[in-house]
Amino acid sequence: MNQLLENTLTIDGQVVPFSAGQTIMDAALAAGIYIPHLCHKPELKPHGSCKLCTVDVDGRSMSACTFPASQGMQVANNTPALTEVRKTLVQMLFVEGNHLCPTCDKTGDCTLQALGYHLGMLDGHFPPFYPRREVDASHPDLILDRDRCIMCGLCVRASQQIDGKNVFALSGRGAQNHVIVNSPSGKLGDSDLNKDDLAAHICPVGAILPKNHGHEVPIGRRTFDLHTVAESDIATFNLHKTEHHDD
Amino acid sequence: MMTNKVRVATTSLAGCFGCHMSFLDMDERLVGLLEHVEFDRSPLTDIKHCQPCDIGLVEGGLCNAENVHVLREFRNNCKILIAVGACAINGGVPAMRNHYEVQECLQEAYLNGVGVDNPMIPSDPELPLLLSKVHPLHEVVRVDYYLPGCPPSGDAFYAILSDLLAGREPSLSKTMLHYD
Asked: Is A95 on the interface with B (CB under 8 A)?
């Protein structure tokens, strides 16, 4: 074995180095390769729930965020077939909640929406569920709108692993799965959550939002007006562009 | 009347007419378009019922019985049916009422609301009944193309119509793709 090729895998034909213990996602992000994802953040333990990082590993479908990198692995990531699968997953997330972007404070800054754009999603395809989940506006600085929650568990993990407050959890089975708040009343206002906690602003969609700070950025200047979701998520993240990503 | 022009019908169901305003935002390009297109039933014409057409543009979701009748008339008469705007695609802002029972909404508006005079829920048979929920078009009829946005831009209307008139498969560039 050539010394230079030890601890490398290939992603769409590109040779990518990795170190022991890294997942495919870790190696890809470090190499500046974008694998679509919603529930993954490098500083938190992987979750494997959104399935958007599904890649073909030696002919089998795997979640890049949880699958360990190994020597000589052949990974297919940016293929038309995977784009179709991922678009279907985003459509499923859209119809499962009430994602009425025109009413949402997160529009233009929402990773789920940006993935819809990235994958060329025009419609939800499936019949909408129109769930009726509880909105919790009991916190003085934050609002929790469960209709927009995609159960990525980022708030849960940030609260357990970073803030150490253990404010959130996912509860209920199947389609009844929803985020709950660990306080005596079950209300956010009675929890230890502070607006400066990572858990309060890690939400990739409009489920956890700051109060009194909606629509502050003009249309055309929002995160995903200026950047693709790929640019915003790779490790070499660098927000200096001023034009639209397609200009 | 024999003509080589492409016939286009448009309608607003549970819409706000904003998609039609965006359609008019094609501005002077409408003049060029009218050399190739003539309008059938539309809020912009006086034609009461849709005749056989090439393209139907439908804004708004389905909120009442009449919406469903009109949508079926469009589907039966239009070769290509396009769901235009967020409401037609996923119910849009009006679908926020799906969080409540329709009876609760009527009671709030006509019985218990602030400033209501002579409270009663309208019941004349002339009036179409509300559906229990607001629905997107594709739950009732087959939809051929989707033009997202609330509303889609005039440029997006021009792009999809130009593609169809030229016999191309419509494709929306990423700059025109938005859901808000």
From this structure: yes
Compute the average pLDDT of residues A188-209. Answer: 96
The reply to whether A102 touches chain B by the CB within 8 Å rule is yes
Q: Which amino acid is at B114?
A: V
- pLDDT attached to residue A1: 46
Chain pair A-B, CB pairs under 8 angstroms: 77
Of all residues in chain A, the one with the smallest CA distance to B149 is: A102
Which pTM was predicted? 0.94
Distance CA B16, CA B59 (A): 8
Tell me the residue range of the domain where B162 lies.
6-95+132-176
Within a domain: B101: no
Q: Per the structure block, which two tokens stand in for A10?
A: 């290939």
What CATH number is associated with residue B68? 3.40.50.700
Q: Domain containing A41: what range?
A: 8-78
Read off the DSSP letter of residue B99.
G
pLDDT in tens, A3-48: 455 899 999 999 999 999 999 999 999 999 999 999 999 989 999 9
In a domain, A237, yes or no: no
Domain annotation covers residue A57: yes
Which of A98, A117, A123 is opposite residue B146, by nearest beta carbon? A123
Which residues in A lie closer than 8 A to residue B63 (C-beta atoms)? Answer: none
Q: Work out the pLDDT band at B1, boundaries 50, 70, 90.
A: low
A190, A99: one domain: yes
User: How many residues are present in chain B?
Assistant: 180
- Out of B93, B95, B148, name the one closest to residue A122 (CB): B148
CB B60 within 8 A of CB B84: no
Task: For residue A107, give the nearest of B91, B173, B180 by CB distance.
Answer: B180
CB A40 within 8 A of CB A46: yes
CA pair distance A4, A8, nearest whole angstrom: 9
Confidence of residue A232 (pLDDT cuts 50, 70, 90): confident
For residue A181, the domain's CATH number is: 3.30.70.20
Looking at the fold, whether A201 and A187 belong to one and the same domain comes out as: yes
Residues A73 and A92 in one domain: no
Interface of B with A in 6-25 (CB under 8 A): none
